[in-house]
Write a structure and sequence with these properties.
- The chain is an alpha/beta fold.
- The protein folds into two domains: 301 residues, ABC transporter type 1, transmembrane domain (ABC transporter transmembrane region fold, Up-down Bundle); 237 residues, 3-Layer(aba) Sandwich (Rossmann fold).
- It is built from 21 helices and twelve strands.
- The strands form three sheets. Strands 6-9-10-3-11-12 form a six-stranded mixed β-sheet, with helices on both faces. A four-stranded antiparallel β-sheet has the order 2-1-4-5, with helices on one face.
- It is elongated.
- It starts with a helix and ends with a helix.
């Protein structure tokens, strides 16, 4: 299958036709979290090491306040200088070791996250390559790019930072609570009284920010899609003088993103101040109650100091946990958008025992073929014709009549709703899809060239072709005549889309690519419609060489180029209204003859 054929999947059934916006589906956060965990689970060793480092770091942090209390009561107050110095050294070692293990857990978790994200991004890219034409009909390319970049990056940040911190926070909260009850159960209960307030407020904020983060990700995808569309079609915008309108629409989309992002950030931003207030209230309660208990000699000054430190350790992870869970909503929203693509139905699978042929003879038959999205609006109606091996079949008709749909059905970009399509007397559904498309070459009106050399772009039709084969294909396509004048000839670098070449030059390279591929069935979709007459002469020579001995389907708006076709199918409103060669159709004095006569006026 040629690259033009692949690029043809972006055009829709008919130009200007059937674009449908993305469908919003119900979200399931629990299911999304479960799927995220399935990727992390693949990195068991890394997760185990990170968990061990978290536990070690947390235990060391828990020891700190306990030793501070002992330091005050047993060494500072009694005035034991040597003991004080010794305890300070022990505390320094503990906190340095805790920081080291904290760094190790971050390092390991970052590696785990990157490997998981690498796998997810790979699966998403492979999935997009396996999607049918209808998938691209209803989605903007910019939105797909946003899912592969922004959404996955958000998930990476959450996995590398949030997951291990959530584990650390939970472990610290539990350990700190145990330590506080060990020191004094009254102060421990006082410390815990503030938790229900924090949990209730955090739950409400997270619930509301979750919806806003989803809206923000959607608006970001829409903005990226619009930016990609305007950059790709900047020449059209300039040609029609629509810069002002384009800027105004960008401002509108940008404002939508700003508003949704601001709303998400404002609501989530309440967490920090509220949690800090709760934290300070908790510390105030501990100091007040602790002072009262100290007056009655129920606690020591060292215990109160330890409790103040523990309370900070206790409330800090609660605050972090609230903020992390809130931040994680953005990652979940992005992950849902990624998983939405991964759950899309791929191209139809091959049947069991599917046929695989080394070469097609080239006999093609459409038998009572119908195609539609909705039965109320049929696109093709009862298409029936036969093309013998080596014949040229021309498709003629108004824009939107169904010409492009016919060749897309032949490639199985779509499957017919009714009727049958045969190649070499076998239904095309019985062939392996990859094998079927490998024998069909396509040269489109809008040729796409990839970033790389001229040689690489021609070789795209046959990746193992030698340099000699590439140059021979270019000569047959009449592309060699201009390539030899390029700065580095076949080694000249092309920008994405081949925009440093003319339209005609791009077409000649596309023809050379198809010649190198050597398909058994050839499709030419208005391949000369965008070039001048002189360039068309060269392109037509290349096409004539390409069509020799092959069954060819030609969609053309210049009727002069198809007068020698074996059959001409005149398509109107999805039906074949006339069929025959040039002489027969001219003799009928019908639709085709009227077109010819109008062109001659």
């Amino acid at each position: 299958m040629s690259s033009q054929q692949k690029q043809g999947t972006r055009t829709g059934l008919e130009r200007g036709g059937h674009f449908r916006g993305p469908v919003v589906k119900p979200k399931n956060q629990k299911a999304t979290l479960s799927r995220i965990w399935s990727y992390l689970r693949q990195q068991r060793l890394g997760m185990l090491l990170a968990t061990l480092f978290v536990i070690t770091s947390s235990i060391l942090n828990l020891l700190g306040p306990l030793l501070i209390g002992i330091l005050i009561d047993q060494y500072i107050i009694p005035g034991n200088l040597s003991g004080t110095v010794r305890m300070l050294i022990i505390l320094a070692v503990i906190y340095i070791a805790s920081s080291l293990f904290s760094w190790l857990q971050t390092f390991v978790m970052t590696r785990v996250s990157l490997r998981s994200i690498q796998r997810l991004r790979k699966e998403l890219f492979i999935k997009i390559q396996a999607m049918p034409l209808s998938f691209f009909d209803k989605r903007q390319q910019g939105d797909l790019m946003s899912r592969m970049t922004n959404d996955i990056d958000n998930l990476h940040m959450a996995l590398s930072q949030s997951v291990i911190q959530i584990v650390s926070s939970l472990f610290t909260i539990i350990g700190t609570a145990i330590a506080m009850f060990y020191l004094n159960w009254i102060l421990a209960i006082v410390s815990l009284t503030i938790i229900p307030v924090i949990v209730l407020i955090s739950k409400q904020i997270i619930k509301r920010s979750s919806v806003n983060y989803k809206t923000r990700q959607r608006d970001l995808g829409n903005l990226n899609g619009y930016i990609e569309e305007t950059i790709s079609n900047s020449n059209v915008i300039t040609l029609f003088g629509r810069e002002k309108e384009t800027i105004e629409k960008f401002k509108l989309e940008n404002e939508k993103l700003r508003a949704s992002a601001l709303k998400a950030e404002i609501i989530s931003g309440f967490l920090g101040p509220i949690n800090n207030l709760s934290n300070n209230l908790g510390i105030g309660l501990i100091i007040g109650v602790g002072a009262l208990l100290a007056v009655y000699q129920l606690v020591t000054v060292g215990v109160i100091a330890a409790f103040v430190t523990y309370s900070r350790q206790f409330f800090r992870p609660i605050n972090q946990l609230s903020n992390l869970l809130n931040t994680f909503q953005s990652a979940i929203a992005g992950a849902e958008r990624v998983f939405e693509i991964l759950d899309e139905e791929e191209e139809v699978a091959d049947i069991s025992n599917a046929l695989e042929k080394e070469q097609f003879v080239g006999k093609v038959e459409f038998r009572n073929v119908h195609f539609y999205y909705s039965k109320a609006k049929p696109i093709l109606k009862n298409i029936t014709f036969q093309a013998n091996a080596g014949e040229t079949i021309a498709l003629v008709g108004p824009t939107g009549s169904g010409k492009t749909t016919i060749i897309q059905l032949l490639n199985r970009f779509y499957d017919a709703k009714q009727g049958q399509i045969f190649i070499d007397d076998e239904e095309i559904t019985t062939y392996k899809l990859e094998n079927l498309r490998s024998h069909i070459g396509v040269v489109l009106q809008d040729t796409y060239l990839f970033s790389g050399t001229v040689r690489d772009n021609i070789r795209y039709g046959k990746l193992d072709a030698t340099d000699e084969e590439v140059e021979q294909a270019a000569k047959i396509a009449y592309a060699h005549n201009f390539i030899k004048y390029l700065p580095y000839e076949y080694g000249t670098m092309l920008v994405s889309g081949g925009m440093n070449l003319s339209q005609g030059q791009r077409q000649l390279i596309a023809i050379a690519r198809a010649i190198l591929e050597d398909p058994d069935i050839l499709i030419l979709d208005e391949a000369t419609s965008s070039v001048d007459t002189m360039t068309e002469v060269h392109i037509q020579k290349g096409l004539n060489n390409l069509m020799k001995g092959r069954t060819s389907f030609v969609i053309a708006h210049r009727l002069k180029t198809i007068e020698n076709a074996n059959q001409i199918l005149v398509i109107q409103d999805g039906s074949i209204i006339e069929q025959g060669n040039h002489e027969v159709l001219m003799g009928k004095k019908g639709f085709y003859a009227n077109l010819q006569n109008q062109l001659q006026l």
